[in-house]
Structures are given as C-alpha cells and as structure tokens.
Amino acid sequence: MLKFALAGNPNSGKTTLFNALTGSTAHVGNWPGVTVDKREGVYKKGSEPVDIVDLPGIYSLSPYTPEEVIARNFVLDEHPDCIINIVDATNLERNLYLTTQLMELDVPMVVALNMTDVLDKRGDTIDVRALEKRIGIPVVEISALKETNVDLLVERALEAVKTARTGETVLKDSLLGSAIANAEIALKLKGVEAPLFHAVKLVEKDEIEVKNHPAEAKAVEAFIAENLAGKRGEKIDAEAEIADARYKYITARFSSTLTRARKYSFDELSKSDKADKVLTNKWAGIPIFLVILFAIFHFTFSENLLFLGSIIPAFGEWCALECSAIKGVFFAGGLNSPGVILFNALDLLTSQIGEWLGAGLEALGASDAVLGLVCDGIWGGLSAVLSFLPQILVLSCSSPFWKIADIWRA
Ligand code: GDP
Ligand code: MG
Predict the structure, then answer these.
(1) Rounded to the nearest whole angstrom, what is the distance from the C-alpha of residue 87 to the centroid of ligand 2?
(2) Is the CB of 57 under 6 A from ligand 1?
(3) For the whole prediction, is pTM greater than 0.85?
(4) What is the per-residue pLDDT across 168-186, written as a single tens digit (0 to 9) for each?
(5) Where in the chain are the domains?
(6) CB–CB of 80/107 below 8 Å?
(7) Which ligand is closest to the CA of 19, given by its number?
C-alpha cells in the first residue's frame, strides 16, 4: 500500500486533514520511546487505498526537538511515497520555511495550501498557479476544516507518486550554494541517499550529519574557510546564513503571490502574531528580554523579593527580629525568593538529618573516623551537591514566564 506523510508546522491543520482523510480508520498511538502522538489511518476514497501518517508539527528538520527528530527520521528512513506538506495560507512565509527544507528531499511532494476558507473570508488571494510554478511542486488549495478539495489533494499526490522526484534547493544562489553543491557531490559519490538534503545539513554543521560524515564535514569547513569566508573577512555562521537565505528567497519569490485585501490592525492579528509583534519589536524586544531575565534571576536568588525589605522599613525590622530557624528560611533582610526559600529549607533538612545521623552513630559507639567519614564526608558531600538543586529547579521552572507566553500565544 502507498504511504503518504502529512508534514507541516504546528497548528497548520495536519490533524484536521488527517481526520478528514482517514475517518474511522484512524489508529492513535505514540511514536516509539516518546510521548508524542502518532496517528495512522487509511484513505479509501481514491483509486487505491493509501496509508496516511500524521507527523508531529515542526518548524524545521533540524534535530533539536523530539518532534523534529521523529519527523526527520520518518521522511528519511521510512521512505514515504509522498509528502503532503500542509501550509497555513494565513501564515504563508513562516510555513514555507519548512517547505523549502522538505523540497530538498528526493521524495514526491504536494503542498496543501490550507485555511483557504479564512483567506476567502478576509478577501485575501494567493496566486496558486504562480506559487506552484515558483516552488516547482503541485499546490492544492484546501480547507481541512470544511473538507474542501481534500480528495483532489490525494489525487494530485497519487499523480506525483508516478514520477520519481529529485530534491531541489532554494539555496543555490546563496553565499553557501557552492559549498552545498560540493558537499552534495561528495555525498553522492559516497552513495548516500537524499544527498542534497544531507549536504545542506552538513554545511549547517548539523551534529548528526557531522558525526555520520566526518571527512566530508572537514572538507566542507575547509572549502568555506578558503573560498567563502574571505569574501566577508569574517567567520560564517552557516546555520544562520542558511536560515536567512531561505527567508530571503521566500520573501523575494513566494510572498508576492499573496495579495492582501487590506492591512490588518493589531487587534485582528492572531495571538501568536501579536506576541511576536511585541516580543520581537525592534525597540521593545531587548528591554523585555532583560526584564524577563531579571525577573527569573530575582525569583531564584533574591533575598529581598519584590524589594519588600527596602520599600517597607517595618518589614525589614520585623524580619530582623530574633529569627527562629523556620522564620530564617523565609526572611533575611526582606522576603526571600522561592529559590532561596527552597534552598534554605533543604539546608535545614539536610543539616537536621546530618545531626540525627551523627547522634545515631555516636549512640552506636562509632569512632571519630567513622563519624567524620559518614557525617562530614558522605552526607556533607551529598548535601552540598543537593543544595544546588532547588535553585537550578526554580531557574529552569521559571519557564512559567515562558509558559504564560506560550498559553497566550496558543
Ligand atoms: P495540527 O497542529 O497541524 O494538527 O493542527 P490542527 O488540525 O489541530 O488544527 C489547528 C486548528 O486549526 C484547529 O482549531 C482547527 O480546527 C483549525 N483548522 C484546521 N484546518 C482549518 C481550515 O481549513 N480552516 C479553518 N478555518 N480552520 C482550520
Ligand atoms: Mg496535530
């Protein structure tokens, strides 16, 4: 049976399309070893049945998140007969970034331009034929939600499967184009499958690629240093360079296929776009970043939370009153931050356990040497290591800040 993979950004409508295509045949499980949903089902309405797999939502094929690794390994190792790349038409540029990576694989591909109902409602239009010509891949306008054109989409994919496809890249004319071309030849000679895809990743210094092809990685690095870095008189950050080249190409060649009926006011933007507008604003971005960073450290290490001790003099006096051990956990000059409170509480606990341990051993008649070894050596050492734990925990759990941003964006 033919196997099609649905690939696209999170929230592009993959699962909605998957459900529209597979109906009741869907089987939901997990990808091996991780708690990432795996949906698989059969499309039966076409000229032949097709196995459909819903890949995790991803923004790129780099190996940084479990989702990326799963999607990448699937398209490379499981040899789907066709990739259906779902593109959220209301976020064309951002979504096409992944498209430019997927098209580097030697796999037949179809772009499903989704959310076209939203586009219609807004009065925006995309010149699909122009887009199709420029990407070099069939593009089908669909609405996964209203199930518009989903059968046509599969038909186009079934057509695409009939001819073998060789990967194409939008990076040919970029600064690193020649490095990619050379790496592609080297990998081809080595008999590597999907040489273009791997060549791009090798030039990006993708850790998996560099490990798999160390000799070629060295050659690429030498080539860049000798031939390309000089042009700039500086070191090249290949990954950033390539990401930049992709976006530039998308803006130059693909964006113009979209005609907006009008400019949108801030209130009409999606939450995600609103968050981006504020958080990545040219002027506000860095101050906001610094404030968040300060807040994270403040909540982790400060002994004067929210500066209460400084603002309310009585607060400081009250705290300075003879501190019981318990009170000392919470107050120093002012109120302690959660990080410091946990740090103190753990310290209190471990030293209490240490005391009990010492008393117990003494009662058993242990020698000074044994006492020193167990209490100061083993327990003391363990406590010292443990004592870092709360603040590290709070520091990384300060992700509440990011979580709030995430929830707001969702
Ligand atoms: P996934 O993360 O790619 O699996 O995206 P989902 O299938 O979960 O869809 C994300 C959201 O977009 C859901 O609220 C869907 O109802 C909505 N959605 C998906 N396709 C369409 C569409 O064609 N039109 C509209 N208006 N909404 C859609
Ligand atoms: Mg989904």
Answers:
(1) 13
(2) yes
(3) no
(4) 999 999 999 999 999 999 9
(5) 2-161, 177-259, 285-302+337-409
(6) yes
(7) 1
